[in-house]
Amino acid sequence: MKKGFLITFEGSEGSGKSTQIELLRQYLVKKRKKVMYVREPGGVLISEKIRAILLDAANKKMGSECETLLYMAARAQLVREVILPALHKGYIILCDRYMDSTVAYQGYGNGINIDDIYQIGEFATAGISPDLTFVFDIDAKKGLARIKRQKDRIEQRKLDYHNRVRAGYLAIAKREPLRVKLLDANRTKEDLQEEIQKIVINKI
Ligand code: TMP
């Protein structure tokens, strides 16, 4: 039986979501909540190894189908090793990216059939879907300009691709307004965090 609460954080590159997740984690710890942070793809050893393959800019030959299945494989392992057991123990899990990333990046971005993604996703996640999702919305060009380090295989894609990913997120938010909260990532760090905390405290 699931007792915990799964919150996922989504958005295009350079949206500042990692900073917001860490601020929320600190806030929930102060409130003495049982809280856990994980990221996707990754979070456990096997999934981190898959992440390295996925993001390696040298893997230029990787096809969209292989890419989709590798993201799902990383997810399947993270769900079994960490997310499911933690939910059973009553943890609030803060997960940096999840299924919506595959829908936005591989579906809207790469043209993989969205119904196929949901079907494979059901298998990969054992049917665990987020209780709450934040989508950080930012202009794709602006977000990419914020990345100062060497860009990975996905980040290196053309602006058109990243615009499709953003449009995908906006479509997801429109389709599922109860689960998905769309946030304008152009606001100050403090402003954004205040809104996130308000929404979370009302739901957990
Ligand atoms: P990160 O930069 O947020 O750590 O995420 C790694 C990259 O992987 C990022 O460019 C988004 C991409 N991604 C997908 O394309 N599909 C997915 O399902 C996930 C989880 C991430």
How would you explain this protein's 3D organization?
- The chain is α/β, with parallel strands linked by helices.
- The chain has one domain (5-203): 3-Layer(aba) Sandwich (Rossmann fold), CATH 3.40.50.
- It is 54% helix and 14% strand.
- The protein has eight helices and five strands, in the order E-H-E-H-H-E-H-H-E-H-H-E-H.
- It has helices spanning 17-30, 45-55, 64-88, 99-109, 114-125, 140-145, 159-175, 189-203; strands at residues 5-11, 35-39, 92-96, 132-137, 180-184.
- A five-stranded parallel sheet has the order 2-3-1-4-5, sandwiched between helices.
- Helix 2 (45-55) packs antiparallel against helix 3 (64-88) and helix 4 (99-109) packs across helix 7.
- The mean pLDDT is 97.
- The structure holds thymidine-5'-phosphate.
- The site of thymidine-5'-phosphate (TMP) has 12 residues, from helix 4.
Question: What are the salient characteristics of this protein?
Answer:
single chain; 204 residues; alpha/beta; Rossmann fold; 5-stranded parallel sheet; 8 helices; 54% helix; globular; binds thymidine-5'-phosphate
Structural class comes to alpha/beta
Strands of the widest sheet, in order across it, are: 2-3-1-4-5
CATH top level?
Answer: Alpha Beta
Number of helices: 8
Largest sheet report: 5 strands, parallel
CATH superfamily label: P-loop containing nucleotide triphosphate hydrolases
Q: End-to-end span in angstroms?
A: 17 Å
